[in-house]
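To assess whether the prediction recovers the assembly geometry, we first specified each molecular entity separately, as shown.
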Amino acid sequence: AQSVSQHNHHVILSEAASLELGCNYSYGGTVNLFWYVQYPGQHLQLLLKYFSGDPLVKGIKGFEAEFIKSKFSFNLRKPSVQWSDTAEYFCAVNKGSGTYKYIFGTGTRLKVLA
Amino acid sequence: EAGVTQFPSHSVIEKGQTVTLRCDPISGHDNLYWYRRVMGKEIKFLLHFVKESKQDESGMPNNRFLAERTGGTYSTLKVQPAELEDSGVYFCASSQDGGSVYGYTFGSGTRLTVV
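The predicted structure of the complete assembly is given in tokenized form:
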């Protein structure tokens, strides 16, 4: 069965530190890839997405992710985190055409210390 | 535009009772999804509506769960009778294109606790 792995369940960083959250998926075909974020008390929001083209995608709030097909990875990065980035981050995979459901990872809780 | 609205935000019920969750998608979004997150685990797909039709209900855990989408507008998810393992956060999402290009718009979720 397809799965999505997020290796870091809890991450604590100080402001201005760099961030990289890992995401690996186990499906060998064409995929669409997403990162969603849930800030405390809010709904899940789309941070960025990849479905074709440049494997380095830029999202909102200074986040970016790189799709490495050979590694089945879609890691999320931010050069300098802020206290307001404290949230839970979810990687998700969609198998592309023919199906619309997402397979989510277990999420990574990020806490940024001011 | 108004977002996806879910009601109630929290529900605490006893084992064996019935609970109905409601989701109002963004107007004009034909695609509506239900997902569930059990504590500490991944968010799992339950089912997908296109308008009023169930496109994919492969994630529904068992026949205690019944989802409907009357007239292709709002949707309800009924759990009857509820069991302890049904506790979790139930998310609804909608999309205009199926989610593969534009992604989903999620509601804030309903936290269901079965005691």
